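Section 5: illustrative case.
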């Protein structure tokens, strides 16, 4: 396995999806490791209780980390907002499901059966 860093040539090869020339068999592995490390940092920052729900901190981290990958500041910021929006939307859908279950009679945990009294 080669220890050289991921280069622009490796990325062009990955985008073209041609058969791997000698010495390039691990370009995808290097890209995977780089993305895994970057997204680990991004998602760990969202856990830090420095702001309300990580708003602002998450987007700034997306901008800083993805700038190293050549992503523009605007696109990285938009990706941070999209990540936040997906979390809010999925949480809201789950909340609506719980609200529906609590408001409608017979839709409790037991699948509609009434508790024995």
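Designed sequence:
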């Amino acid at each position: 396995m080669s220890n050289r860093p991921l280069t622009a040539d490796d990325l062009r090869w990955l985008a073209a999806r041609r058969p791997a020339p000698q010495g390039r068999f691990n370009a995808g592995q290097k890209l995977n490791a780089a993305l895994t490390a970057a997204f680990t940092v991004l998602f760990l920052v969202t856990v830090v209780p420095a702001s309300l729900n990580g708003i602002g901190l998450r987007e700034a981290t997306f901008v800083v980390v993805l700038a190293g990958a050549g992503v523009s500041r605007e696109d990285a910021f938009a990706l941070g907002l999209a990540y936040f929006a997906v979390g809010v939307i999925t949480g809201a859908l789950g909340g609506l499901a719980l609200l529906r279950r609590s408001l409608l009679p017979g839709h409790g945990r037991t699948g509609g059966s009434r508790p024995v009294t």
